[in-house]
Automatic annotation (TrEMBL):
Family: Belongs to the ATPase protein 8 family.
One Pfam family this sequence matches: ATP-synt_8
GO cellular component, one term: mitochondrial membrane
The protein's name in its UniProt record: ATP synthase complex subunit 8
GO molecular function: proton transmembrane transporter activity
Compartment annotation: Mitochondrion membrane
Membrane topology, as annotated: Single-pass membrane protein
Keywords: ATP synthesis, CF(0), Hydrogen ion transport, Ion transport, Membrane, Mitochondrion, Transmembrane, Transmembrane helix, Transport
GO biological process: proton motive force-driven ATP synthesis
Regions crossing the membrane: 6-24
Length: 55
């Protein structure tokens, strides 16, 4: 069964991870978020209870 021979697949996996780690990942990490999170205070909305007509 040739699928069990790790020789060509291991090399492909290593090349793929090296490409991702050394080329693609630094390019993706260099982007600045266009919508940074802000420190907003949480506002609590006051609600009034519903008055049921049959009670």
């Amino acid at each position: 069964m040739p699928q069990l021979n790790p020789n060509p697949w291991f090399f492909i996996m290593i090349i793929t991870w090296m490409t991702f780690s050394l080329i693609i990942q630094p390019k993706l990490l260099s982007f600045v978020s266009m919508n940074p999170p802000s420190n907003k205070t949480h506002t609590v909305q006051s609600t009034t209870p519903w008055t049921w007509p049959w009670t």
